[in-house]
Design brief:
The N and C termini lie far apart (57 Å). 27% of the residues lie in helices and 21% in strands. It is an alpha+beta fold. The strands form four sheets. Strands 1, 5, 6, 7, 8, 9 and 10 form a seven-stranded antiparallel sheet that branches. Keywords: Hydrolase, Protease, Serine protease.
Amino acid sequence: MGVRMKVKSIGLIGFGMVAGVAASFQFSAMAQKTGSAPLPLDELRQLTDVFGLIKTDYVEPVEDRKLLSEAITGMVASLDPHSVYLDKKALREMQESMQGRFVGLGIEVAMEEGYVKIVTPIEDSPAFRAGIKAGDLITRIDSTPIKGLSLDEAIKKMRGEPKSKVVLTIARKGDDMPWIVPLVREEIRVQSVKGKIVEPGYGWLRISQFQEQTVDDMVKKVNALYAQDPKLKGLVLDLRNDPGGLLPGAIGVSAAFLPHDKAIVSTAGQRRDSNEVFYGRREFYAARSGADPLARLPAALKNVPVIVLVNTGSASASEIVAGALQDYKRAIIMGTQTFGKGSVQTLRPLTRDTAVKLTTARYFTPLGRSIQAKGIVPDMMVDETAEGDGLNSLRVREADLEKHLSDGSGKDSIDPGKARRDEMEEDQRAQAQARTRKPLEFGSKDDFQLAQALNHFKGLPVKLSKVEPVLDKEAEKSKDKAAVKPVPDVKPPELNKGVKK
């Protein structure tokens, strides 16, 4: 066995694959596990036989490198939606995105029934400005039909140089005809943290993606809010449409609101080093050298009432934050059920320029609740608009993705996609309004969920959703005691108790 090295830059991959936005992963230069089982020699001989047949009998010559690269791609992609082989270009783009910049269209996508489905457009991106919405299907890229392409192949066609053009053909549920969307690729810089005083005494703090600088940026923004209003009576932490990002950012944001040294999240996987507990300590969210960034936060932040806004676009790192604050009863979670991206991806380098991003563990909240394929159920279910939640019901969730990883309980989960599709049939009017509605600007005066959060702070009535969360009934009966036990320093509370309705 070779020397083992592990870089403590651990993170989460956002849901699906990303065209122009990479999410995150666990970096590792660890030697590969060998000797655990004998190699399947008969199957390997079949693989070499097929390779030989293609080389000798196929209609035209095929390069060895292409055949082997495609074999690796197919083998890894067969596992789950988040495991993928990264060639030189894909690896470079993913590494750049960790710094909050990338070239592309600004859409997060997944494959559904042979087409590329929009999970969510990134704020202020070419796709967002063009009116592309969650739930839209891409049927053509330029003149190439999507049907028959892999997700990775489709993403490669959407990538390109800054200022280069691409034309997408979009199908939208409820529309009779597809529509053509010409887009220009551009370098997109995601502003990780935003914030403002929305009303005297009430602050709004938005995290759009967890990046390398998120904790430092959050500290600066929180200090700016308290400088503007030192007597904050409530803070809204907005994680809607946050696809995830680096785990240190999620730990740091959670630790900012919790007592020191609390468990934030745990992982469970096949390897011994995949079973870990991550605490709200400096070494888990800050660089190796330098002062603790959270030490610069105002002490009042530990006690200010907090409401966390989430929706189906909230995934991975944002679900870890919401789950931790919910388990400790530190915040009220408001909005709609989250995406359910609760798996760890580890980057295993193959060569200097290529790697495999492999799912290696599942994430669990401090109480041992699995996030995978379930998500976080809000304490207060609130639709995205006063008219209903048509737009949110169009979004894909982890449990809708082909070959998605189970929650680890050993029990089959119910099909949340079917439940949501049933709701869609009953709510055509709300969906029609969602298709024609201009993109919502989070934090604006038209932000319905933010208005409901402020109402709750003030003791005013909150308009709750009529949509029920999608639950695994068997897991609910068993109190979800699957896979891992609650971390010892967490006293299991009765969740959702004491929440004003």
